[in-house]
Amino acid sequence: MHAALIQFIVIPVVKIAVILGVVLLVVAYLTFAERKILAYMQVRLGPNRVGPKGWLQPIADGLKLFVKEDLIPAKAEKAVFLLAPAMIMIPALLAFSVIPFAPATKLFGLLPKAIPPYVTDINIALLFVLGISSIGVYGIILGGWSSNNKFSLMGGLRSAAQMVSYEVPMGFAIIAVLLMARSLSLVQIVKAQQAAHLWFFVPGILALGIYFICGVAETNRNPFDLPEAESELVAGFHTEYSGMKFAFFFLAEYTNMLVVSSLATIMFFGGWLRPFPNVAWLSFLGVVPPVIWFAVKVAGFIFVYMWFRGTFPRYRFDQLMQVGWKWLIPLSLANLVIVGAGVLLVKG
User: Is residue 6 part of a domain?
Assistant: First the structure.
C-alpha cells in the first residue's frame, strides 16, 4: 500500500509541482528575454533597472500586476468575464502533462529505478495536446464577448476565424509526422526518429514550415496578431482586463508559445536526442543531459518567434485569411500526399 501510494500519488504530484513551477518561471523570463532581444534588434538597451542588468524585471512586473486594482466593467457579463482568463490559461498548462522533456532517468544514481521526468505518456498524447489547446480559443471569444466592448468583441471574432483557418493546415502537417512515426505518442515519435537515424524535419521540411507558421498564427503572435492589433483594436480581446486577469492572458500567450515550440522540437528535431544520436564518433555529445538538448531546441524556436515580432509588419485580415486558405491548405495537402507516397515506398 505504501509503495502504491508513492507510485501513483506522491511521484505524480511532485512531477506536476516541479513542471508547473519551472514552466511558470520560464514563461516569466521569456517576457524579459523578448524585451531584451527586441531592444538589441532596435539598437537600444531594454529593461536594465530592476536588479543586476534588469534580471529582476519579471518579478517586479508580476508583483505590479498582482497589486493592481482589478476592474470589472459595469455592463460586463461578470461570471463569464471572470471565467475567460482561466479558460485560456489552464489548457495551456495542461498540455505540459504529456510533453516528454527527457527519457527516464535515475538522476545520476540518486533514484533506485529510472523515472520518466514527465507526468505521463499516453498513446494519443498528440491528439490530447491538440484537443486541449483548442479550448483556449473559447477563453478568448468569451473574454471578448463578456467585456461588452466592441473592440474586445471584434478581437474575439478575429481569433475564432483565425483558429478555424490555421488549424486545418496545422493538422495536415502533423498527420505527415504521424505517417512517418506511426504513433500518436510523443515518446514514440522521438524514438521513431532515433530508429530512423534522422530527424523528421529532413523528409518533412515543408511540414515543419507549415506547422510553425500555423503555430505562430494560433498563438496570435506577430505578424498574425490581428486579434489584439493595438493600432486597430486598442488591445483586442483583453482591452477591459486588468490586474491578474490581464496577467493570465499574457502568461497564456507565452505558455502556448512554449507548447508549439516543444511540439515542433519533438516532432521534427528529435526531442531530447542529441544531434546524430546513432553516429559513434559524436558520442561525446552524450555528456550533455538530454533535457538540455531539448531546452536548446525549444529556445531556438522561441527566438524565431521573437525575431518575427521584431522584423515583420502585421498582415491585413484579408491577407491573413488568404495565406491560410489559398496557400497553406493546398501546400499541406500536397505535402501529405508526398510524405505518404515516400513512406509507402520506403516502408512498403
Answer: no
